[in-house]
Design goal:
This protein has about 160 residues and is an alpha+beta fold. The protein has one domain. Helices cover about 25% and strands about 30% of the residues. The strands form 2 sheets. It has an 8-stranded mixed β-sheet. The protein has a two-stranded antiparallel ribbon with strand order 3-6. About 30% of the residues are buried.
Length: about 160
């Protein structure tokens, strides 16, 4: 059984997971778990906590690849089509920061950073007061990114409709 059910953005419910590519010539790839108060932003490969800013074409390609990684992970793979191992698909890390703890997620070939979702404001890393709070957030996130087979987690893709 596949754990993700693709839906259109306007039909997605409050528990849906979205893959977003906001408008602009240079943009980011955003993974939005609607039921949580943070988004996950793709980090540039090999660079420490630098958002992966890309042109529209590259960002759309990355978003599609991220969707494939999620779907492969839901089928029990590790997100890079190597060894099937559901446990190796997602790794969450609560990392100490100057004012708290940050949450990083590694999914297949991608690294993502949890960032506060504040409409109209640039993304900033989400800071959790304690390592325990970061771990709790990681566990809630894992239930969305690695849904149980009997859960039909809604997944939508948005590259155009932003208000």
């Amino acid at each position: 059984m596949v754990s993700f059910r693709r839906v259109e953005g306007e039909q997605a419910g409050p528990e849906a997971l979205g893959i977003l590519v906001p408008p602009g010539r240079r943009t980011l790839v955003v993974l939005r778990p609607r039921s949580l108060d943070f988004d996950l932003l793709l980090l540039r490969d090999g660079q420490d906590l630098v958002f992966w800013e890309a042109g529209r074409g590259e960002a759309t390609h990355l978003a599609l690849k991220l969707r494939r990684v999620l779907e492969e992970g839901a089928r029990g793979g590790n997100g890079d089509a190597a060894t099937p191992s559901r446990g190796s698909f997602l790794e969450t890390i609560s990392q100490p920061a100057p004012d708290g703890y940050q949450l990083l997620a590694k999914m297949g070939v991608f690294r993502l950073l949890a960032c506060r979702r504040v409409p109209g404001q640039p993304y900033q890393p989400m800071l959790f007061a304690t390592a325990g709070e970061a771990r709790d957030a990681a566990e809630r996130l894992a239930h969305i990114l690695c849904p149980r087979p009997e859960v039909a987690q809604e997944l939508y893709f948005n590259t155009k409709n932003f208000r």
